[in-house]
Amino acid sequence: MKLRSLAVAVAMSGAVSGLMLVSSVDNTAQAQETFEWKMVTSWPKNFPGVGQGPERLAEIVEEMSDGRLTIEVFGAGQLVPGFEVFDAVSEGTAELGHSASYYWKGKAPAAQFFAAVPFGMNAQEMNAWLHYGGGLELWNELYDDFGVDVLVAGASGVQMGGWYNKEINSVDDLDGLKMRMPGLGGEVMERMGVAIVNMPGGEIFTSLQSGAIDATEWIGPYNDLAFGLHQAADYYYYPGWHEPTVMFEAIINEEAYASLPADLQAILRTAVRDINADVLDEYTARNNDALETLVNEHGVELRRLPDDVLAQAKEHSADVVAQLAEDSEMAQKIHDSYRAFQDKVVNYHTISEQAYYNARNPDESTGN
């Protein structure tokens, strides 16, 4: 079964009882067969949140399969560089990968829609689109030519706006800055005068500390504290307009997946669905504690991005996203699905979640 149908399949088989029925099928030969997989990632080994998700995935799969499917997890650079995860899975060097789809924009520009869209949908909305709005089917259709399938494997939640080695008081202060920011957000910043430098996460601290870059975004307080970015830059800006979430992906080699018996396929799908929720839960639980440590113990200057920066970023974002949609017929198809679903959920969220937040904290604000 192709993974593009799994948005429905996973939802319907989410109950453990359903999975156990699959697992109880009497097939002695398959029950005795074991599989040893490799999983490559774009993150440092055991890195908080995004790096620990793959480790938990491997543990869940091994436990649920009673050791019949084991997964060895490799951090970025251990088996392949972080930016070569997609190729490694496509070519069969590894059966499984964990990454973010905007890293593959050179191969499939439209993949960026599935990672993060500036001023776009947040994690809750993205999960709804991917699992119940046809997004996951489109994602798998996009990856068809590469011999890989994909499942949603975690989310960061709304990110921070970035670390800067100088104050940003207006959009003019961005001109000439060298900054690490991937994806569509980086293209927006380029239109605002920023020189974008692409690099994997493991190179960020050294580059910022040495002055090779003047600013960076990474993920949020939980990961940024772990990376020690407060030791390389003083100013920490919000909001993360460029990444209202990043959706992480589990990339699966098609042939390897097809070689698994049905019960192990179901176990793998269920385990990925589990860490999809778990990674976001971890970020939600840990980010504020880390933020308080950064501000109260390390003296980090927490600042809101100026209004003119946000206004120009929003204006340029609309142009960048529209231009991406024109890249191909497939990109337009994904864009149209994304925008239609966003319009639908925002319509309800305006009178539900947004109205609730306004009622819960009517006087709460954080100034520059």
TrEMBL record:
Na(+) binds at residue 218. GO terms for molecular function: metal ion binding. Keywords: Metal-binding, Signal. Substrate binds at residues 159, 180, 217, 243. One of its GO terms (biological process) is transmembrane transport. It holds the Pfam family DctP. NCBIfam families: TRAP_S1. This is TRAP-type mannitol/chloroaromatic compound transport system substrate-binding protein. The lineage of its organism: Bacteria, Pseudomonadati, Pseudomonadota, Gammaproteobacteria, Oceanospirillales.
